[in-house]
Amino acid sequence: MARITDQNKVDRLKQSTMKLVVAHGFGGASAALIAKDARVASGYFYRHYKGKYEMVNAILQEVYQEVFNKFGEFIKEDSSFPGSIEKMIRYFVGIANSEPIKVKFLYVLTNDYNFVIDDEIRSKNLRFIETIRNIGVASGCLDEELGVDDLYLILFIMTIQFINQKYKYADQEQITEADINHLLSILQKFLK
User: Fold this and answer.
1) 158 DSSP assignment
2) Which SS3 state, helix, strand or coil, does residue 152 take?
3) Crossing angle for the helix pair 7-28 and 31-38, nearest 10 degrees?
């Protein structure tokens, strides 16, 4: 007989994983600690994931998939490169304002030497960035010397860093319209 998955427990595991990775880094968030925080048995954790690395990558894949699916829609909707970029940044900030734990989770993982992103996730991300790059170069809005890694750094890593600087040092709980406009201005300068 197949075991029934309690989606609430799985969701609690995901939330606890993000919370504990943000609080303690990848290395400090053990599977046992995650299970305890989620109020599930360790066996339940291991029934769904081989270990912490698999769990973290599954969450990371979900977050990136959510973001890149929406970004793909923006690219199809808006033929202008600057318009697509602005929509992408505004959407990402919307996630940060509604679910800050997701952006903090990305921030910690991008800065934690104990964690290495899964090759499949990295490849998908870079293929998507390459699509954005090709649109920008073809439209003349993007310096063609900027490579895929450069564009990933400028658009995503810089945006994550900017948001987290506001959370951490400006003691803000929400990213404001003025913040968004400032970020877009900075990004435009890097992209030309």
Assistant:
1) H
2) helix
3) 140
**DSSP secondary structure, 63-105, as one string:** HHHHHHHHHHHHHHH--SHHHHHHHHHHHHHHHHHH-HHHHHH
> How far apart are alpha carbons 106 and 10 in whole angstroms?
20
Note down pLDDT in tens along the chain; length 192 residues. Answer: 445 568 898 999 999 999 999 999 999 999 999 999 999 999 888 988 999 999 999 999 898 888 888 888 887 886 688 888 999 999 999 999 999 999 999 999 988 988 888 888 888 888 889 988 998 999 899 999 999 999 999 999 999 999 999 988 887 889 999 999 999 999 999 987
Give the whole-angstrom CA distance, residue 130 versus residue 72. Answer: 12
Cβ neighbours, 10 Å, residue 183:
20
